[in-house]
Amino acid sequence: MEKLLIIDDEKSILDLLSVVFKKEGYWVRATLSAKKALELLTKEEVGLVLTDIKLPEMSGFEILKQVRESKPDIPVIMITAYGNVKQAVEALKAGAFDYVVKPFDVEELKIIVANALEKKRLQEENILLRKELTEKYSFETVIGKSKKIKHVYSLIEKVAGTDSTVLITGESGTGKELAARAIHSLSPRKESQFVSLNCGALPENLLESELFGHVEGAFTGAVADKKGMFEVAQRGTLFLDEVGEMAPWTQVKLLRTLQDKKIRRVGGTKEIAIDARIISATNQDLKKKIEEGKFREDLFYRLNVISFEMPPLRERKEDLALFVNHFLKKYSTEIGKSLKRIAPDVMKTFESYMWPGNIRELENVIERIVAIEERETITKDSLPDELLTARKKEETDLLFQKNFCLTSFLDEAAQSYIKQARLLSGGNLKKTASLLGISYRNLRYLIDKYKLKPDQKADEKEVEADQKPPA
Q: Which helix (H) or strand (E) holds 310?
């Protein structure tokens, strides 16, 4: 419920407006005194000010000026006599939301007040949303403590303050967009928009229109002029995801834009200056695509001024527990469930799994588990079948690699077991044979076969013991 502050030196108008807006559900503070009104503004939270321009103690312009200086988010509506419309227009230029002329239409005034408060609400929501996005995609939300991700942290901090183009490489699901947003949130452009466009999700003709915009009649369905993402991202950051999927003709236009800092809408003739920082990302090998003639080398060097790779999850296993706990907390809170515990064998399964989908795959697995699992502890029974099946396949693939030889595998295993048993027995071969479950003679045969370095002192003692006559 918003509070209105109404200021007018005519008591009849003050009483009328108080009754009208109280019936509309507003809190109303009404006063004949401009000075008292300014005192109320310093003490109370006010949603809107409705003031007459002509007041005995000071003008409505002075009230407007002080409101704009101390609380610029509060809309001010001016009331003026019929002959002072010129003054009301001046008030609009000075920052007033709108004005009404005496004698005013009460219903019209209600609409003006409602519109002013709705605009204020939307502005507040926009500020809150921007703050939430900044926090969500801030530097600290790029999770990890591994050496590789710390190197990424360092690069993000260094490049954020520049306007250089950045190319982020890495497999799908490694957090390339998150890194791009972190760069934006640390940059001087953070107050402007971060605009993201997936170049692989649109056909060539639509991608060109999305990037550069179009004019009315440029093609079938272009019923009005439309801004492209370069214009939307003015003074902000434009993130081009999967840039390696871009068609040749669009690559030419993008290169020209990066060189000239200007765009031309599809079907248009007018050049529009643009000011947007470009961050691109790809999971493809662009150098290989250049060799194949599928990506322009000159565009690559324009995009690749600064580059770094987001490491896959399998190469930063020390960060796995951090991600698991983060996603558990996130989805438990969103779904409204108590925080789950992970059984040790589940964590071992996570650690041994290769995570081909990287962080995105892990997040999806945790979200599914939290949504479905009713127990407090997450066990192997909670895991999706495809994860367990994939793990078994990985183990099999690792075992039967190319050029696999069973004889070599068994020989290596035998040598490893003999060495470990000899260590445990202190070099005593009879004890070693006993540990291995084979005869002493068989052990000596294997040692000779594998040319294992003998323990001379232990062997000499055993020979002496064998040759010593019984007591």
A: none
